[in-house]
Amino acid sequence: MRTEISRETLTANEISNVWTAFMKNSMEIRFLEYFLETAEDGETRRLIGKMLSHREKGINYLTDLLAEENITIPLGFTDEDVCLNAQKIFSDTFILYFCYDIILFSISVFSTALFDCVRNDVREYFQTSLEHNIEMQNVIIELEFSKGVHLSFPKVSIDNEVDLVNDISFLNGIFGDTRPINVGEIANLSKIISRAQFSKMIHLTFSKLSKSSHTSQHFSRGRDEIQKVLDALTHVLDKENIPMSSSSDYQISDMNVSPFSDKLMLFFANMCLGTLCFTMITQAITSCLRNDLILKISKISNDLKFYYLDSVKLSIKEGWLERPPQSINR
């Protein structure tokens, strides 16, 4: 029965996930090549090497699969999108954070793909990829702890009494008495804040690395938009006396030559930073119960949508946006 499934033509969902995985691997290979060239710590280099090897094998598999299905192979990203001779601009700690962000996005993408796909060969690829990224996530966390650079989420004292909600005021945040935020709300806000701290520094870095004034200005605008997110959500935690950890290793060295093309940086911002950002925001909106938090996060979502829409428009204007496969117009 499984053999019969493997002979079926790919569904639209499977094609979409395979195409996305190809573009994702193609992008990540370029960053990982540069990180492998510039990282100095031996353990970090071994981690990068494993991640790079898995993605190179993956893109070979995906290329063969698309060819067998008579689907055009995407252009993706080439060695023209990275300069391996460029000087080191990221600290090894920042490289670890960058790799961890890639891993988080990969786990999100591949777990969704497993839900979408039926053909056993395609499912095997996504399952193997998911397992690899979970393994790499564990390695990175252990590395960060061993080096004393792991960014922990908030720790709070918990009331262990069983208590049922018996008043609609539990939802209050705008009017009337406001209850303390619960652990689910703390978890969601802290994830978004942690993600925003990293995204802000990426946008700041990319604004300095961009060769074009258009992309540089766009990344600077992104930095400012993300700062608004940080201001809004850290204010909530500050009022509750809940501390968030941050890193002094979010820094870059002065550079003379950019290691990345503007096309590569914009794609990373749109695909990796943007997609995972909205995933976290959606989870927060659906699980937060205080109405003021729901409104605050909804506003953040709406504001960021305009920015990332302009990102797509910029990609089109520069001739960088590669069209995903589409059905024949009947």
* Helix run count: 9
What Rg, in angstroms, do the CA atoms define? 21 Å
Average pLDDT number: 88
Helix proportion: 55-70%
Main sheet record: none
Distance between the termini: 33 Å
List unreliable stretches of 5+ residues: 1-5
The run of helices and strands is HHHHHHHHH
Q: How would you sum up the global shape?
A: globular
Q: Count the E strands.
A: 0
How big a fraction of the residues is strand?
under 5%
Class by helix and strand content? mainly alpha
Account of the protein in words:
This protein is mostly helical and 330 residues long. Helices cover 67% and strands 0% of the residues. It contains nine helices and no strands. Residues 1-5 have low confidence and may be disordered.
Task: Chart the SSEs and their pairings.
Blueprint: H1 2-7, H2 12-38, H3 42-68, H4 92-116, H5 120-147, H6 183-209, H7 213-239, H8 262-287, H9 291-317
Helix pairs in contact: 2-3, 2-4, 2-8, 3-5, 4-5, 4-8, 6-7, 6-8, 7-9, 8-9
What attributes does this structure have?
disordered N terminus, 330 residues, mainly alpha, 9 helices
Please sum up the structure shown:
The protein is mainly alpha-helical and 330 residues long.
